[in-house]
Every structure is written in structure tokens, then in C-alpha cells.
């Protein structure tokens, strides 16, 4: 009986471990994936979804972006800045002229007003983020050119 309980406990533990490790690269999505983002704004497969539209009371835009591995935004800036909250995965964020930062689940990033930056998933693991753009009366986003493969690959080193 004692050996049966030990065997059963070992079997349950092994099953849980296998299930927990089997989909390491799959993200736990919180919000709907949404439609694929424009090739004019993203490299790779990125799926932005608006969650809160700006209005005269909140003056804030909130949304979610799901980046598949290797996907990233173009360089861009926000007149009033942006806050990113990483809800799953691993990726990169870079403010122009500064080193690339590794971001992962639990990271909170403040992008200063009118400062060019980009963000996206690592080469091997996707990234899911919430974005918050405050004070939308100043504007929401100014999109620029794509992040080159050379800049992106330098983040992967």
C-alpha cells in the first residue's frame, strides 16, 4: 500500500512536470489576439488590440499587443509618453541611442514623451504587453521606419 501511494504520487508529479514544461514557448493570453498588425508598422506577426479608447474623461488609450517570436514594432514615439506592462513572454525594448533592454513578464517600462523607441518579442519566445498612452489630447503615436534586422539581431546577442 505504501509503495502504491509513492508510485501514484510520483506519477502525478511527473505528469504535472511534463504538462508544465510542454508548452514553454506558448504565452498565456489574457485578451483576444486580435487582427494582424500592418506591415507598415510591424515586422513579423504582431496582433494589436485596443481595449480602452480615448475620450474626454480619461484621455488615455489602453491596448494589448501579442508579438510572435521575432516580431517587433517600428521605431515610434508618443507625444505624452507610453507605459508598457509585460504580461507574458520575453522581448526587447530600446530607446534610441541607449542599449537594448530585455523585458519579460512583470516588467514595467516607461517610454518618455517624444522619444523614439521600439519593442517586440525575442527570437525564440513571443511577448504579450499592455500599452498605456496617457494625455491623448497631445496625440497618440508617431510611427517611423522599421527596426532593421541588424539592430534587432544586436538585441539577441
TrEMBL record:
<protein>
    <submittedName>
        <fullName>Cupin domain-containing protein</fullName>
    </submittedName>
</protein>
<dbReference type="InterPro" id="IPR047263">
    <property type="entry name" value="HNL-like_cupin"/>
</dbReference>
<dbReference type="InterPro" id="IPR011051">
    <property type="entry name" value="RmlC_Cupin_sf"/>
</dbReference>
<feature type="signal peptide">
    <location>
        <begin position="1"/>
        <end position="20"/>
    </location>
</feature>
<feature type="domain" description="Cupin type-2">
    <location>
        <begin position="65"/>
        <end position="123"/>
    </location>
</feature>
<keyword id="KW-0732">Signal</keyword>
<dbReference type="Pfam" id="PF07883">
    <property type="entry name" value="Cupin_2"/>
</dbReference>
<dbReference type="InterPro" id="IPR014710">
    <property type="entry name" value="RmlC-like_jellyroll"/>
</dbReference>
<dbReference type="InterPro" id="IPR013096">
    <property type="entry name" value="Cupin_2"/>
</dbReference>
Amino acid at each position: 500500500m505504501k509503495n502504491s501511494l509513492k508510485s501514484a504520487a510520483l506519477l502525478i508529479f511527473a505528469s504535472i512536470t511534463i504538462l508544465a514544461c510542454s508548452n514553454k514557448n506558448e504565452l498565456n493570453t489574457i485578451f483576444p489576439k486580435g487582427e494582424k498588425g500592418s506591415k507598415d508598422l510591424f515586422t513579423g506577426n504582431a496582433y494589436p488590440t485596443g481595449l480602452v479608447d480615448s475620450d474626454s474623461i480619461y484621455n488615455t488609450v489602453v491596448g494589448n499587443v501579442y508579438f510572435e517570436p521575432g516580431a517587433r514594432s517600428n521605431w515610434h514615439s508618443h507625444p505624452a509618453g507610453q507605459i508598457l506592462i509585460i504580461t507574458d513572454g520575453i522581448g526587447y525594448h530600446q530607446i534610441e541611442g541607449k542599449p537594448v533592454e530585455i523585458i519579460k513578464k512583470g516588467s514595467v517600462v516607461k517610454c518618455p514623451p517624444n522619444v523614439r523607441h521600439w519593442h517586440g518579442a525575442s527570437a525564440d519566445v513571443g511577448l504579450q504587453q499592455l500599452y498605456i498612452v496617457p494625455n491623448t489630447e497631445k496625440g497618440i503615436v508617431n510611427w517611423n521606419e522599421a527596426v532593421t534586422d541588424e539592430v534587432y539581431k544586436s538585441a539577441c546577442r
